[in-house]
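Section 3.1: Structural characterization of target chains.
Under the original work plan, the team committed to producing a structural model for every single-chain target entering the pipeline before any wet-lab resources were allocated. The record below documents one such target. The sequence was received from the expression subgroup and is listed exactly as submitted; it comprises 345 residues.
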Amino acid sequence: MQRDRIEQWLIVLVIAGILVLTTVAFFPLLGIVLFALSVAMVSMPLHRWFLRYMRPSFSAVLVTACVGLVLTVCTAATVAVLIENSGFIQLVVQTILNWVVTAQGGSIPLGIPVDAAQVTSEVNDLIAQFTTSLRSWVEQVPGLLMDVVIFFLALYLFLEQGERLWLEILRNIPARGRRVASRFSEMAVDTMYSVYVVHLAIAVVTFFISIPFFMVLGYEHVLFFSLLCGVFQLVPFLGQTVVLLFVGGYALALGDIRGILLVIFIGYPIAAIPDVVMRPLLMGQKVQVHAAILFIGFFGGIAVMGAIGFVLGPLLMALLVAAYKIAIEEFGAGPDGDKDNNDSG
C-alpha cells in the first residue's frame, strides 16, 4: 500500500512537472490560448446546435470559420474607417486647440502661455504618428500570421475536444470536488458571456442608435462618429463620454450652439441607455456578481495585464466571488452560528 501511494505521488509530480515546463516554455502564447478558450466558452452553444446536424469536427470547423469571419470583418472595417478619417480627426483637434488658445488670449487655462502654432504642430505630429503606426500595424498583419494560426487551432481544439475532456476530469474527482468544479465552470462561462455577448451586443446597438443622432447633428462623417461610439462603448460608462466630449468640444469650437444643445440634451441621454438599462439587464440574467466588481475587473485587468486583461480581469474577479461563496457554503457557520458538522453531537 505504501509503495502504491509513493508511485501515485511520483506520477502526480511527473504530470505537474510537465505542465509547469510546458507553461514556462509556451508562456508568451498563454494569452492567445486563454483568449481562444474564452471565445470557445461563448461559442459552445452554437457548436452544440450544429452538432444536431453534423459531426463534431465539422461543427468545430464551421464555428471557428464564423468566428474568424466576424473578427476579420470587424477589425478591417474599424481600421479602414479610422485611416480614412484620420485627416478629419486632425482637423477637429486643431479646431478645438485653436479655439482654446484664442479664448484664453494666447494662453491655455491656468494662465500658462502657449504658442498655438507649436501646439497644433505637435498634435498634428502625434496624429500623423498614430496614423502611421496604424498603417504599419496593418502592414505587419502577415507577420502576426503565426499567432492567428495558433489562436484558431486552439479554438478548434477547445470546441471539438474541450467539453469531452472537461467531463472526463469531472468523472475522476470526488463528488464534493465535482460540485465545486462545476460551480467554477458555470461562473466562468457566465462571465465570458457578459464580457463578449453583452458588450458586443451593446456596442452594436450603440452604433446603430448613434447613426440618426449624428445625421441630425450635421457634421458629416456619420459612419466615423457612430463607429467611435460603438467601439468606445466596449469601455463601460467612460467610452461614450469621451466621444461626446470630443464632439461637444468641436461644436463649442465652431460656435455651434445647436450642436452643443443636441449633444447635452439628446446625445448624453441616448448614450446612457445602453449602460443604465441594457447592460445591467443583460448581465443580470447570467452573472450573479455585482456590476461594480466586474468593472473593477475590466479596468484593473487592462491596467495590469494589458489588452488580455479585458477578458481575464472580470473572469478572475468573478471566480474570486465564486470562491468566497463556495467557502461560505462549504465551511461557513450554520443558522445558529456553529459550523455545520456533527462533532458536537
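The chain has twelve helices and two strands.
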